[in-house]
Amino acid sequence: MDTWMRFMSSDGEVVFGRVEGGYLHEYESLDQPVPTGAVLSTRALTPLAPCAPGKIVALWNNFHALAAKLDKPVPAHPLFLLKPAGSVIGSGEPIRRPLSYAGKIVYEGELGIVIGRRCRDASAEEAAESIFGYTLVNDVTAADLLNENPHFPQWCRAKGFDTFCCMGPAIVSGFNWRAARLVTTLDGVERQNYPLADMVFSPAEQVRLISQDITLEPGDVIACGTSIGVGSIKDGATVTITIDGIGTLSNTLTVACEVAI
């Protein structure tokens, strides 16, 4: 397995590469994984979200256990929405409560698939080869907005606020997702602990089927959906998501402040 991360250097430059033994071996980019020859100490770098997706494809009802609990039928095709690129933050960055919203904010711990090459109408083999690696995602939701308007469920608005897609801390290629579990804690108390093997659609199946609907580009992320244990975050609380072999994603909900003009 290889671990890939994205950082900000002291001169404001974004660098990407493979991390080993406290050093970043720089590569050109995620879609052009060619080494530049530069080797940088990670102690002198500021971690960022591990990629900058053009879009995040977020799945709903993709785990058998949660479908059974909600008494929902297993879908025949991935059910998804799109989160905007501007919603992405890295591990350690704050989730900001929108000034316009005082309602319930919910965490959802998820596996993220990172796309490594352009993918459209992919075969099963092409879909598997299009996966660069895996990361962690907290698909944050302003839950009270979903059905605020009885005539139009507001999935994109509820999940698309700035900072509502926590991602990181790294991308791991060659990761055996079938043997892994995802654990979410809220202020240190375990809230989710589920096997990734319970997914309705495997990562390769997700890529194949979603590529029939929209073109997936390098750096795009598919959030694989969540399972039992979703809950609300109080202001000041910290959500921590862990998958052994990928790492830990941790973010705290803060109250946004008015900016003086």
Tell me the structural class. mainly beta
How do the SSEs run, as a string of H and E? Answer: EEEEEEHEEEEEHEEHEEEHEEEE
What is the domain total for the residues? Answer: 2
- Extract low-pLDDT stretches: none
Query: How would you name the CATH homologous superfamily of the largest domain?
Result: Fumarylacetoacetase-like, C-terminal domain
Shape label? globular
| Number of DSSP helical runs | 4
Mean pLDDT over all positions: 95
**Level-1 CATH class name of the largest domain:** Alpha Beta
Look up the CATH topology of the largest domain: Fumarylacetoacetate hydrolase, domain 2
Q: Distance N terminus to C terminus?
A: 49 Å
Radius of gyration: 18 Å
Organism: Paraburkholderia domus
Keywords: Metal-binding
Domain Fumarylacetoacetase-like C-terminal: 55-253
InterPro entries: Fumarylacetoacetase-like_C, Fumarylacetoacetase_C_sf
Q: Topology of this protein?
A:
Blueprint: E1 2-8, E2 14-20, E3 23-27, E4 35-41, E5 46-47, E6 55-60, H1 64-70, E7 79-84, E8 88-89, E9 95-97, E10 105-107, E11 109-115, H2 124-129, E12 131-139, E13 141-142, H3 155-159, E14 165-173, E15 181-186, E16 189-195, H4 203-210, E17 221-223, E18 231-232, E19 238-243, E20 247-255
Parallel strand pairs: 6-17, 8-14, 9-20
Antiparallel strand pairs: 1-2, 1-5, 1-14, 2-3, 3-4, 6-7, 10-13, 10-18, 11-12, 11-17, 12-14, 15-16, 15-19, 19-20
Jot down its keywords.
globular, twelve-stranded mixed sheet, Fumarylacetoacetate hydrolase, domain 2, mainly beta, about 260 residues, Fumarylacetoacetase-like_C, about 40% strand, 2 domains
